[in-house]
């Protein structure tokens, strides 16, 4: 049987429970999620996290704290003292907050950083016996051919050659993984953008790069070996391939969520139009406003879903 068919079957059997595919886990007495400063010996994961249905992740700990404050208010779950403890206290690698069924986790910058966090987060959800979880990356990005402040819901996460794949080196060999996201979820999020009508929301491909400067064809890094014209040609090729924004985590995020059978989406605001420049010149207030947009959109989606659960 081709491996993708058996993988598909395995996934169907899981029925939206979290899939980990590691035979070694069973023989471990305890599991230490080192970078989250959580472990199965001293924490009851099922009790603490078993009710999680929505996970939002983003690069900055500050953004993920502000998201939990926002969603708590939206869901009427505000803490009277305004206290939202960091569940990863004791490590400064990542920050994690929870209100009701919503978990908010920071992942730092770039593929290696989000990948480590996702390994540990996926195991956390697995140990907690969570089911039917939706995970959304709420991030920032550089746009192509879009007004700054536009929110892009990712259709496909592509690499720097515009292909929907993520390459991981395992035991010295390159393993290529698919980066499909949940199309239905992306459509629902786009619809939420339309309902809100507070800012432009579009669907498009997101290019995930290994670097912010040369990797994203910037002219303002410490090194640059190409001309402005070559930069513009590359961005035009990306646009022609359906790319509407560029960031640094979507491909591994999509690949790992797909492997673990978690419904996933990427929603990033564009901070600038890369065809017009490289430096981020908007004021602090404008940047803060832009960063809130994916939070507002995903907050609307979560509220809608929870209201729908209630009425069934
Ligand atoms: O979630 P964030 O805003 O961190 O995502 C993008 C991609 C990189 O991590 C970072 C670069 O500024 O922003
Ligand atoms: O241009 C940008 C802006 C935010 N994040 C990126 O990765 N690129």
TrEMBL record:
Task: Show the catalytic activity.
Answer: uridine + phosphate = alpha-D-ribose 1-phosphate + uracil
The GO cellular component terms are: cytosol
One of the protein's GO biological processes: nucleotide catabolic process
In this chain, substrate is annotated as bound at 216, 218
Query: Which parts of the sequence bind phosphate?
Result: 93, 137-140
Q: What class of enzyme is it?
A: transferase
Q: Which Pfam families match?
A: PNP_UDP_1
Pathway given in the UniProt record: Pyrimidine metabolism; UMP biosynthesis via salvage pathway; uracil from uridine (phosphorylase route): step 1/1
Which first-to-last residue range defines the signal peptide?
none
Q: Where is the Nucleoside phosphorylase domain?
A: 53-302
Quick check: keyword Transferase in the entry?
Answer: yes
GO molecular function terms here? uridine phosphorylase activity
Q: Which UniProt keywords apply?
A: Glycosyltransferase, Transferase
In terms of superkingdom, the source organism counts as: Eukaryota
Return the similarity comment. Answer: Belongs to the PNP/UDP phosphorylase family.
Q: What is this protein called?
A: Uridine phosphorylase
């Amino acid at each position: 049987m081709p491996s993708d068919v058996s993988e598909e079957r395995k996934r169907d059997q899981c029925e939206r429970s979290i899939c980990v595919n590691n035979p070694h886990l069973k023989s471990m007495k305890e599991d230490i999620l080192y970078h989250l400063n959580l472990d199965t010996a001293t924490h009851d994961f099922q009790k603490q996290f078993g009710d999680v249905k929505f996970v939002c992740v983003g690069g900055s700990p500050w953004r993920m704290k502000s998201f939990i404050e926002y969603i708590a208010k939206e869901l009427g779950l505000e803490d009277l003292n305004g206290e939202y403890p960091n569940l990863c206290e004791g490590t400064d690698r990542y920050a994690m907050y929870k209100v009701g069924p919503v978990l908010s986790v920071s992942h730092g910058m770039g593929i290696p950083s989000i990948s480590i966090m996702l390994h540990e987060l996926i195991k956390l959800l697995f140990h907690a016996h969570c089911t039917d979880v939706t995970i959304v990356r709420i991030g920032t990005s550089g746009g192509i051919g879009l007004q700054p402040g536009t929110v892009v819901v990712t259709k496909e996460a592509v690499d720097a050659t515009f292909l929907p794949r993520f390459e991981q080196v395992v035991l010295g060999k390159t393993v290529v993984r698919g980066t499909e996201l949940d199309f239905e979820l992306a459509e629902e999020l786009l619809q939420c953008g339309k309902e809100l009508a507070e800012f432009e929301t579009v669907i498009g491909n997101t290019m995930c790069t290994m670097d912010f400067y040369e990797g994203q064809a910037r002219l303002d890094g410490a090194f640059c070996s190409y001309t402005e014209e070559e930069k513009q040609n590359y961005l035009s090729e990306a646009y022609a391939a359906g790319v509407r924004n560029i960031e640094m985590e979507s491909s591994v995020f999509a690949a790992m969520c797909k492997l673990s059978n978690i419904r996933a989406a990427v929603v990033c605001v564009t901070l600038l139009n890369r065809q017009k420049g490289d430096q981020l010149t908007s004021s602090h207030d404008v940047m803060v406003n832009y960063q809130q947009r994916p939070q507002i959109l995903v907050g609307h989606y979560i509220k809608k879903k929870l209201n729908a659960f209630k009425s069934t």
